[in-house]
Amino acid sequence: MRPDTSNYREIFLNDVPMMDARAPVEFVKGAFPHTVNLPLMSDIERQKVGTCYKQQGQDAAIALGHQLVSGAIKAERIEAWAAFARANPQGYLYCFRGGLRSQLVQQWLKTEAGIEYPRVKGGYKAMRTFLLETTQQAVEQCDFVLVGGLTGTGKTDVIAQLANSLDLEGHANHRGSSFGKRATPQPAQIDFENRLAIDILKKRAAGHEQFVLEDEGRIVGSCSVPLELYQGMQDYPLVWLDDSFEDRVERILRDYVVDLCAEFIDTHGAEHGFARFAARLRQSLANIVKRLGGERHQRMSALMDQALAEQEATGKVDLHRAWIEGLLREYYDPMYAFQRESKASRIEFAGEQAAVLEYLRQRELARA
């Protein structure tokens, strides 16, 4: 049998598949990529065993666990574990601390299914700690630079073209603005942090010690940027991305109307997708009503309703430009202009996309 492991670095660098033996409620709160939840106990069973442990001690709790997971239930779970083990011979199993639950799964796999399968020492808790430390160490040891710019300049496009970038919005599955929600849900906070840490780990292993980030707020949708990283972002140097007003309008039209509508239809089907897309767009505008003011919100909302009606009837998206232009001129641009002024002392370069990309690539080479 392959030995049990505590080499968390190799697990995450190689996207090793893992079987999570924790209860579903634990898995939903946070897990790792390439992981399947095949619990030893259901949420209710875990709760009963936990109560027994508190009231009667470990031996009674273990006895109750064996009683609850027996017979057909036990056979069904062992078969699921065995199927995973056969499909992923290079994988591992784990529980919360690498203790009783994963040891029992390991033991039953061997005695009942004839499969010897290794587990992760220290379990979820140790791997989670390793990833938290990965991000902390990067903040302490690496060089960071931010990409800023007005709404629609294509900051995300720049991030996507750099080998040393960290895509916070991508990991959060959110575009970072009031209109940034996607058709699919955001990850749990812990999942977001884990994805970011694994990205950092892989890029450092590839030799990158300088990272490019989009200039974000503390919250990306419902996901919070790790505190130590966000604190650093208040002082990191800034590269400012410029683009014409017309190009920005077209980019926003593409991202927030054309592509987002297609994403909703792909996710929810042709029958319900457009209606959900339209509702999301209207809700996004409603979310900033207090900052817009009643008159501007009413005006933008009417323009949006006209655009959505035409889009649904004909597929044309031209009318969306009216509310996009209004929002940029009257809301986003003044806000970002103020931010640019407040960060002016940290701006070390400004230019359009090609120039910014070239500058950032040369910047990494110069610091290598």
Automatic annotation (TrEMBL):
Keyword Transferase: yes
GO terms of molecular function: transferase activity
CDD domains: RHOD_YbbB
SUPFAM superfamilies: P-loop containing nucleoside triphosphate hydrolases, Rhodanese/Cell cycle control phosphatase
Keyword Aminoacyl-tRNA synthetase: no
Residues annotated as the enzyme's active site: 95 (s-selanylcysteine intermediate)
Limits of the Rhodanese domain: 12-136
Classification via InterPro entries: AAA_SelU, P-loop_NTPase, Rhodanese-like_dom, Rhodanese-like_dom_sf, SelU
Catalytic activity annotation: 5-methylaminomethyl-2-(Se-phospho)selenouridine(34) in tRNA + H2O = 5-methylaminomethyl-2-selenouridine(34) in tRNA + phosphate; 5-methylaminomethyl-S-(2E)-geranyl-thiouridine(34) in tRNA + selenophosphate + H(+) = 5-methylaminomethyl-2-(Se-phospho)selenouridine(34) in tRNA + (2E)-thiogeraniol; 5-methylaminomethyl-2-thiouridine(34) in tRNA + (2E)-geranyl diphosphate = 5-methylaminomethyl-S-(2E)-geranyl-thiouridine(34) in tRNA + diphosphate; 5-methylaminomethyl-2-thiouridine(34) in tRNA + selenophosphate + (2E)-geranyl diphosphate + H2O + H(+) = 5-methylaminomethyl-2-selenouridine(34) in tRNA + (2E)-thiogeraniol + phosphate + diphosphate
EC numbers: 2.9.1.3
Keywords: Selenium, Transferase
Superkingdom of origin: Bacteria
Pfam families named among the record's database cross-references: AAA_SelU (PF26341)
Subunit record text: Monomer.
Family from the record: Belongs to the SelU family.
Function statement: Involved in the post-transcriptional modification of the uridine at the wobble position (U34) of tRNA(Lys), tRNA(Glu) and tRNA(Gln). Catalyzes the conversion of 2-thiouridine (S2U-RNA) to 2-selenouridine (Se2U-RNA). Acts in a two-step process involving geranylation of 2-thiouridine (S2U) to S-geranyl-2-thiouridine (geS2U) and subsequent selenation of the latter derivative to 2-selenouridine (Se2U) in the tRNA chain.
NCBIfam families assigned to the protein according to its UniProt record, in alphabetical order: PRK11784.1-2, PRK11784.1-3, tRNA_sel_U_synt
Stated name of the protein: tRNA 2-selenouridine synthase
Name of the encoding gene: mnmH
